[in-house]
Amino acid sequence: MSGATQARKNNKSLSKYKIVFLGEQGVGKTSLITRFMYDTFDDHYQATIGIDFLSKTMYLDDKTIRLQLWDTAGQERFRSLIPSYIRDSRVAIIVYDITKKKSFEFIDKWIEDVKNERGEENVILCIVGNKSDLNDERQVSTEEGEQKAKILGANIFMETSTKVGYNVKNLFKKIAKSLPEFQDDNNNTALDKSLSKGNNTSSTNNQDKSTGVIDISTTNNENNEQAGACQC
User: Fold this and answer.
1) CA 204 to each of CA 54, 73, 83, 123, 208: distance values in angstroms, whole numbers, following the listed order
2) pTM, 2 dp
3) Burial degree of 45 (CB within 10 A; 0-12, 13-18, 19+)
4) Which has the least CB within 10 A, 39, 100, 119, 129?
5) CA-closest candidate to residue 96, choices 36, 155, 142, 34
C-alpha cells in the first residue's frame, strides 16, 4: 500500500500540529512560509491582513502528520487577535529581522505572550533571525541571537534567508524532529525522505491548491549551512 493510500485511509486519525508565526511587521513571516511551501520568494512586500492559514500533509516513512501554519499580522491593530491563535499551538516561531534591532528587541514580548497562553512546557519555541543575505546591513549578530534564545528558553534558534532559501528546510527539519510524533523514532532516516503532495487552504481565498513535493532530505550544501544554526 502506498504512503498516499495509507494516508487517505488513516486521514481521520492524522496527528495535527499547529504552528503559529509571530513577530513584528515586515520581518518575513509570510516569506518564510511561502519559501517552505512553494520554494518561491516575492520581492513585493504585502502586509498580512489579520490571520492567514495554510495546511500541509506530510508523509514521513510510516508516519503521516499535518502541519497547520498560522501566519499572523505584525501590525499593531491586529494584536488583539493573536492570543487566541497562540492558545492551542504546538510550535511558536518568533521571527525578527537581523537588519532591524527593534524587531529583535520585541522578541521578549512575543515570548512572554506565548508563555502566558501556553506555559513553558507545552510549546516548542523557535527564534528565527531572518534576512541573513543582508549581512552588510546587520544590526543583530548571530551571537546575540543565540544568547537571547538561551536566556528566553527557546528550543531552536536559527538564522534564515527566505530570499535565497538559506536554512529554511533545516528549520522545518529541526521542528519536525522536535515533534512528539518523532520522539520515539530512533531511526531518523525517515526525515531524509521526500514529503508527498498535500493541500493548502488559505483563509483569504478558501481555495485548495497543490503545493507539490517538499523535500527536506539533507544535502551537502545544507550540511555546510549548519554552521549558521544551533539547537539551543
Assistant:
1) 10, 13, 20, 27, 11
2) 0.74
3) exposed
4) 119
5) 142
